[in-house]
Structure formats: C-alpha cells, structure tokens
C-alpha cells in the first residue's frame, strides 16, 4: 500500500471524523521514562478509531453497492462506526450481532439507524449468519479489519501522529484483527523508515503474536480488552504486520486495568481495556522505550460504567488506596469503638465493616472483623496495621492484588 493511498484517505476523512488531539503527557512521561504522546481516538463521535475505516470503505462504494446496502458483524466499535457513517451517507446498514450482545450496545447501534440482527451464541455463528444474509440480499460486506480500504482508513491514525510530531521514535498500537496497526505501521514506515512500531496484545488473546512469532501462548476466553479479543488474525493485516511491525508485546489483564486507571486519574480520560493496552506495554517493557519519543494510541473509550467502577476499585487496591483488613477481637463492648478510633488516628477512612461471629475459626467469645479502609498509599496501610497490633488487635492485610 502506497503512502499516497493513506494521504488520499486522510483527505477523504477531512470534515467527516475528528482529527483527534495528539498530546504530550508530562506526568505519564515521568512515570514511563520516555517522552509520551497520546493519540485520543476515544474522542471520536462513536468513541473509537473504527469510524476511520468505516467511512473510508463506505465512501468508496459504487452507486449499485450503495443502493443495495452493507452488512457487518460486530458487537462493538465497528458496528457503531459502520452504522453511524452509513446513516450519514444514506446507506442502509445491517449489523449482525451475537445474541449475547448487551442491550445498551444494541440500542446504541440501532440509534444510528442500522437494522440489527441478533444471531448465534458465538461470534463465529453470527458471522455465518451475516455471510448468508449478504448473499441472499446482495449486501456489501464491511469487514472489521481484513479489507484494504478499512486498513487504509485506520492507517490515517499513524499518518496524523507523524504529521503532528515528526520527531517520534516509536509507535505503540494495540492489535485485535490488526487493521489499525497494519495501516499505521505501513504509513509511518514510508514517512520515516527508522521509526519503530510495536504491537500489543493481551495475554488472553495472543493469536496474532502466535501467528507471527510461531509461539504457543494458550490464551483465555475473556478479557477486559474485548475490543482486541480477536481469535482469527486477518490475512492482509498479518502480511503488513510481518513487513512493517518491529515487535509484538503481550500484557496482562492487571496491567491493562492499572493503565486504564492511570489514564483516568492522570489524564482525566476514559478508555476501554483495548485503549489502555498500549500504555500497559510501555509500563511493562520500559527498556524498549527509555528516553525515546513514543506515540501511543488510545484507540477506544466504550467501557461499561459498571465494569469501569469495578476496575477503579481494583486499581485503588493495587495503588494502596483501598485495603481490606482482617482483625481478631475479643467480642466485648467497646472493642469496635477502639478499633475505629485507632484507624481514625492514622488518618485512614473506614469504607465498610463486616462483623463475623459465626463463620470464624477463632474461639468462642471472639470475633473477626473485616474492615475496608481508604488510605493514601501502602505506607499508610502499614501504619494502620502496626497501630492495631500495638494496641493488641492482631490484624492482617487481606488484599488479593
């Protein structure tokens, strides 16, 4: 794919999508040891870079294809990108979603005027249904990543990053099917051949890493980075990644969670799990990026609020801002009051108390207290534990992170 094709796609996208900010983060730079620039694709109207490929593909359809309509299979960002831009261009869009797709995602996609078909208990079953419908109704297939027009549209992310900061040494981009990194790496290497491009996958879905490196990472079934939970690498994307990407890195679920919290806490921006994967890689492999100018793509911001709340809590535990203590007490009047006073004296705040008499291995007339406290850091947790133990209350930390 020639650089001119990415530049042409970029011109087509002007006024159709947001040219997202590409911003230096001073605090995250200090944290990671590199000069870190963030590409805020989570600020697109449908909160994901997927709009770029969707618009590029749809705008290039022939009049006959436009009249017949298009079809896509997706439970996430691709569905919304296709539905939104199809509506804007006056093209009928059919979106096939697995039957387990959360109602909020169905409603959001319907809101953009798409016809929703719920089919199959797995993504592959939904895909088979989409293929059948496409043949029956003469619909044009809009693949989420393995399509040269889609790749071309997504590659404008890499183009914009180097236009804004030509001195970049490296790009870090999450990989699901590979459309974003394939296009961005292809464009970036033609502009600046010496630039390094790193792809990132979650350990739960390492399929592109396995395909390209010949590794046998087992993977899992679920991930908080569902935007990159792709089991079948694309053929076009794989070839481009093999040609233009320097290395592929794996990150854990916990590292993604932690990075998501850093972005929320430091940059005041909400990303989904996939959107935090790039930062997670930079934090896990600091020697790759030390002292370099690095661009990372915050590729999406569609995260379920309840999942976000859970991740914030878990992240607070990791940072030592939330702790669960197990305290053995003699079950007599005033014991609980003394414990709460000791915790207050250490300037910690009690969030939750559970008083357990029956379900404990302690002798009768003793009880077990489970206390969740809010703290500033791990040092303060240690101070609370020490103060309790000095006062005769055996206390242990019960965190699992």
TrEMBL record:
UniProt entry tagged with the keyword Lyase: yes
GO biological process assignments: isoleucine biosynthetic process; L-serine catabolic process; L-threonine catabolic process
Signal peptide, first to last residue: none
InterPro entries: ACT-like_dom_sf, ACT_dom, ACT_ThrD-II-like, Ser/Thr_Dehydratase, Thr_deHydtase_catblc, TrpB-like_PALP, TrpB-like_PALP_sf
Catalytic activity: L-serine = pyruvate + NH4(+)
UniProt keyword annotations, A-Z: Lyase, Pyridoxal phosphate
Its EC number(s): 4.3.1.19
Tree of life domain: Bacteria
Molecular function terms from GO: L-serine ammonia-lyase activity; threonine deaminase activity
Sequence similarity: Belongs to the serine/threonine dehydratase family.
Protein name (Swiss-Prot/TrEMBL): Threonine ammonia-lyase
């Amino acid at each position: 794919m020639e650089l001119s094709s990415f530049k042409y796609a970029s011109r087509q996208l002007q006024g159709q999508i947001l040219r997202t900010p590409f911003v230096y983060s001073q605090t995250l730079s200090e944290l990671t040891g590199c000069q870190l620039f963030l590409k805020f694709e989570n600020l697109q109207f449908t909160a994901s870079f997927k709009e770029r490929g969707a618009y590029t593909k749809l705008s290039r359809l022939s009049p006959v294809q436009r009249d017949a309509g298009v079809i896509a299979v997706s439970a996430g960002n691709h569905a919304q990108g296709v539905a939104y831009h199809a509506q804007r261009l006056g093209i009928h869009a059919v979106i096939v979603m697995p039957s387990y797709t959360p109602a909020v995602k169905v409603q959001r996609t319907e809101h953009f005027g798409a016809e929703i078909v719920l089919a199959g208990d797995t993504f592959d079953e939904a895909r088979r249904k989409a293929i059948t419908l496409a043949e029956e109704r003469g619909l044009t297939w809009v693949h989420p990543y393995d399509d040269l027009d889609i790749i071309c549209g997504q590659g404008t992310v890499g183009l914009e990053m180097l236009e804004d900061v030509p001195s970049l040494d490296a790009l870090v981009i999450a990989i699901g099917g590979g459309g974003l990194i394939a296009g961005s790496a292809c464009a970036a290497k033609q502009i600046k051949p010496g630039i390094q491009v790193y792809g990132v996958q979650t350990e739960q879905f390492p399929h592109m890493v396995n395909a390209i490196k010949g590794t046998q990472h087992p993977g899992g079934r679920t991930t908080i980075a569902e935007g990159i939970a792709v089991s079948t690498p694309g053929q076009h994307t794989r070839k481009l990644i093999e040609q233009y990407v320097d290395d592929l890195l794996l990150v854990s679920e916990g590292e993604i969670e932690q990075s998501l919290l850093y972005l929320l806490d430091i940059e005041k921006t909400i990303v989904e799990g996939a959107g935090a994967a790039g930062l997670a890689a930079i934090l896990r492999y600091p020697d790759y990026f030390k002292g370099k100018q690095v661009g990372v793509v915050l590729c999406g911001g569609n995260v379920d609020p309840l999942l976000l709340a859970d991740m914030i809590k878990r992240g607070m535990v990791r940072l030592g801002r939330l702790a669960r203590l197990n305290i053995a007490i003699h079950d007599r009047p005033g014991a609980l009051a003394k414990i709460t006073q000791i915790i207050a004296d250490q300037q910690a705040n009690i969030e939750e108390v559970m008083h357990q008499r029956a379900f404990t291995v302690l002798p009768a007339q003793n009880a077990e207290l489970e206390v969740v406290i809010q703290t500033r850091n791990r040092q303060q947790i240690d101070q609370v534990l020490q103060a309790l133990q000095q006062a005769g209350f055996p206390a242990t930390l019960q965190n699992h992170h």
